[in-house]
Design a protein that fits this description.
about 200 residues, alpha+beta, Cyclic Phosphodiesterase, Chain: A, five-stranded antiparallel β-sheet, 4 helices
Length: about 200
């Protein structure tokens, strides 16, 4: 990604889940150069597109995502592990990342498919390749050692669109729109203004 800026669609853990993740992280053993993701930015990616920092595609993506049925998903994070990359990519500074994996969940797979259809409707191409649901919580973490993970329940009831900027270690997120299982939609003013121009 040349610009290092994305429009990212994902699920973001609430404070209780983030606290459980932090506890597991703090009980793990880490190499000296490991970097930890800021807790508020932890997320499970469902799709993303390059936006070159100009929010060019955000309004039509919000319009398409507003039709995605969001339901409360009772997820369980039941695995923590290290993924090793043979070659680092521009957005993956280290050769290893530490992730939480959710237990298989049909509703999560269905939501991912709905997000893919929304991207197609917005005439956008998902840049995710070989989607495997996970939450990245550390980088440069080769040889990290984790204690046994007490499964972490997570009721995910909000689909979020953010503008995501890479800072050299992790992505920092600016909320653009949230779509709730209650049917409510929260849209940032900058997107709302552009949506009105589309109408």
């Amino acid at each position: 990604m040349p610009s290092g800026t994305r429009l990212l669609i994902g699920l973001f853990p609430d404070a209780e889940v983030r606290s459980a993740i932090a506890m597991h992280r703090d009980q793990s053993l880490w190499p000296r150069n490991a970097h930890f993701a800021p807790l508020p930015h932890l997320h499970l990616t469902l799709g993303y597109v390059d936006d070159s920092g100009e929010l060019l595609y955000a309004p039509r993506l919000v319009a398409a995502l507003s039709e995605v049925p969001v339901r409360g998903l009772k997820l369980v994070l039941d695995q923590s592990c290290t993924w090793i990359y043979k070659e680092a990519t521009p957005t993956e500074k280290g050769k290893a990342i530490s992730v939480f994996r959710p237990a298989p969940h049909d509703g999560l797979s269905d939501l991912h498919e709905c997000v893919q259809r929304a991207l197609q409707k917005a005439e956008l191409q998902d840049d995710v390749r070989g989607w495997t649901p996970h939450i990245t919580f550390a980088r440069d973490s080769e040889r990290a050692a984790y204690p046994a993970l007490e499964p972490i329940p997570w009721l995910a009831g909000e689909l979020r669109l953010v503008r995501s900027r890479f800072d050299g270690q992790f992505f920092r997120h600016e909320p653009l729109a949230s779509f709730f299982a209650t049917g409510d939609i929260r849209i940032a003013p900058v997107i709302r203004e552009n949506l009105q121009r589309l109408c």
